[in-house]
Amino acid sequence: MSNYYVYGVIRASDDLEFETDAVAGADRIYTVSHRRLAAVVSDIEETEPEQTDEDAQRHDDVLREIMEYGDGRTIVPMRFGMVFENERALKNVLRGARPAFRRTVNDIEGTVELGLKLVREEDADVDREAIEAAVADELEPLAVDSTESDLFSDRLVLNRSYLVESEDREAFDEAIARFEDVHDDLLVQYTGPFAPYSFVDVHIGAQ
């Protein structure tokens, strides 16, 4: 009997099932429900899947498909590698973390995560504080929330993730384009949309 590989949690009323290229060669996504919540899963033989580049990309691609399914779905995303050996163990987690899941679904309803990295050109001398202020003035009014990530390079000036309402996505794109037009000393790396990993704080353990 196969195990359950979990991509995330949605409302049970948003039940879904579709065929796609899923993690570890699976070809079908479906839900396991408990009351008002449902885990989005695919079948998997192993309990500790290796995080290959291919399967990590499949995990993210499936989350994106779920977010775009039908008229759109709100999903609390799980990190790669969350596997449960049986339905009872999975439903126990849905039961135990129900308040946190329901609260988080409400918090991220109708949103996507967008990422922005600003990298200075090799010989450019930039005012980091001024750039941070300019970005905040331009983007923060268009975002529900934002969070800062590590500056892992000397040339990395800003590294932030933004939680943005889907209906504000176009305006956010345009704001990024305006910023890029007036800052030719910076390389703008704008990514997404992603499931809102950076704005989810539900911790569970696989079984």
Automatic annotation (TrEMBL):
Biological process terms in GO annotation: gas vesicle organization
Stored Pfam families: GvpL_GvpF
Family: Belongs to the gas vesicle GvpF/GvpL family.
Subcellular location field: Gas vesicle
A GO CC term assigned to this protein in UniProt: gas vesicle
Phylogenetic classification of the source organism: Archaea, Methanobacteriati, Methanobacteriota, Stenosarchaea group, Halobacteria
Keywords, in A-Z order: Gas vesicle
Keyword rRNA-binding: no
InterPro entries according to UniProt: GvpL/GvpF
Protein name stated in the entry: GvpL/GvpF family gas vesicle protein
